Amino acid sequence: MNQIYKLNNLIKTILFGVTLTISQVALGQGMLPPDSTAKPKSRLPLSNRVNVGINLGMMNYYGDLNASNIPLPSSRFAFGAQVRYHFTPAISFRGQLAIGSIEGNDRGKTTFITTGDFSVPNLNRSLNFRSSIIDFSGQVMFALNNQYSNSKFRMHPYAFAGIGVFSFNPKGDLFNGSESWENRYVYSDKGKDITDASGNPIEQDGEFETTLKDWSTEGQSANPKDGQLRSYSTTQVNFPVGAGIRIRLNRRFDIDFEIGIRILLTDYIDDVGNDYPSKANMVGNFSDPAEQQMAWYISNPVIYSQEANNPIANPGSGFNPYARRGGRDSKDQYSFSSIGVEYKLGKQKDAMEWLRASDIEASNFEDAAKNILNPMMQDTDGDGVLDFLDQDNNTPQGTIVTTKGVPFDLDGDGIYDRNDADPYTPTGMTVNSLGMPADSDGDGVPDYRDISPNTPAGAIVNFKGQPVSGAGAGYASAADEAAKKASSGSFDAKTKQLIDAIVANHLGNIYFDINQFNVKSEYFTICANLAKLMKMVPEIKVDVIGFTDPTGNDEYNKSLSERRANSVKRLMMETFEVEDARLMISGNGESNLLSTEVSSKGYLSNRRVQFRIVY
């Protein structure tokens, strides 16, 4: 038992030390050195952990139609909302919604060509797009330093990374008014000038009326064949990464300055990603010649806006003068740069994010560790084994258990010793619910020790199961005589004396090992014979009285003696079928000692149960 307690104390010490270390690292270590002038503030568990906020800023597009390193001309207004939860001052999780739009235009960008020189806008291709963006993502945020300057003005940089989903729908400005062949823009050679169908110079009207995906601009199909590209989905996964600076305005409000890039797995937010379509793909996607004519133009407006080049208006013209339409080796991206305001929810004075090492009392580290350890240090049944190691959390009080928290089962018969009427059954024996081996002839001696397993019912046997003579025969004749007198109605003083003599001379006491209350199998014969007497003389009852040796305190000895008496009663009831009402128990502790000898032999004679007949 001492070893179990020593083991549990060691486990508690190790767990507490490890948890305290983790708490210190997570809550205070790695931040800047403490402000020596700051006073300890609210404890960590009582700080506000949830922030809500809004963001206003710009979305920018990076892709085939805008190769500039700083695409400021394509910036579009965007806004967002967010909720953030703090696990520690340094680590938080943010759910963010961002809504905006992006755009790109070959006629308004500067292209870095392979010669290393900057050319004029890419008029040869003259593609453009605009797309709305709805972006929702979850991000883990890391505060790199949660204090700067004094306690009144605080700021820290932060970084974030996460995963999200977004929707887009690229549209093009390809018609001067509604979407029809007569309203197309007509481009001059190499796209330098734009006129209407009548030859009058015009400019793009800025209305993005054409849903580009619907026109399979690179020959895509929902059911691709023979190397044909599959139509792209307008809902995709993104991976937001970025950094920012957060400034604490007061105990309720913070302001953020943030730049975030969305890394994408698609190259089609601008509808440009591969080669111009083949004739077979275009004809396969659109059976109507008028639709084919429109599709050729929308895919390559500079070439096919002129009827002389359009394969529908002029069937003799050539196809695909430029095989490459977009950059096949890279994916598009977009950014969301914003200024945000956050409001800290909660009733506490301090926010989790702005707690510093100096704000947390040394005792708070211990408190935080205990909050983690307390559930792990529970011992519900008080057996000395912690609940998370205990395989039986309902062990009765006082039961001696193993290091796994289960009561001992010395004979391995599946019945815990506290419930086992025979805790020393040989290995492999089949037992009943009381832990008792089979007793075929019901003489109180289990079969594995019974030399005569077929003794007639009612026979008096010794501890080996053999019928006895002499004292045993005297017991039988005396019991028969008492039974006859009782049944004849002459239950007088002489009959009572005869029964008392039977108990005193032929039954004897039941003895126990130190601190034990299970009945040894060698005493089953006494219980069997007493049960036979009670069945032969149904007028009698029996007081089962338990005793202990003088070691131990009075309270413990009183309880132990009662448990010994109760064990004998259970055996009489459950094995030998004596009615509950005919058996009474009492525990007399260390009173009425049979021997005052200070020795193991003297003590053994006092650890007993004896019987008294009640009339």
Please provide a written account of the structure.
- The protein has 615 residues and is an alpha+beta fold.
- Among the domains are: 48-173 and 232-268 and 333-359, Porin (Beta Barrel), CATH 2.40.160.20; 469-614, OmpA-like domain (60s Ribosomal Protein L30, Chain: A, 2-Layer Sandwich), CATH 3.30.1330.
- It is 22% helix and 22% strand.
- The protein is built from 10 helices and 16 strands.
- Helix 6 packs antiparallel against helix 7.
- It is elongated and about 145 Å long.
Describe what is shown at a glance.
With 615 residues, the chain is of the alpha+beta class. The protein is built from 10 helices and 16 strands.
User: Spans of 5+ residues with little confidence (pLDDT < 50)?
Assistant: 19-45, 110-119, 469-473
The CATH class of the domain at 48-173 and 232-268 and 333-359 turns out to be Mainly Beta
* Intertermini distance: 45 Å
Write down the Rg.
Answer: 47 Å
How does CATH name the architecture of the domain at 48-173 and 232-268 and 333-359?
A: Beta Barrel
Structural class: alpha+beta
Helix content: 10-25%
Taking the sheet with the most strands, its summary is: 8 strands, antiparallel, barrel
List the total number of helices. 10
Q: What is the CATH topology descriptor of the domain at 48-173 and 232-268 and 333-359?
A: Porin
Note the run of SSEs as H and E: HEEEEEEEEEEEHHHEHHHEHEHEHE
Physical arrangement of strands within the biggest beta sheet: 1-2-3-4-5-10-11-12
Shape: elongated
The proportion of residues in beta strands is 15-25%
Count of DSSP strands: 16
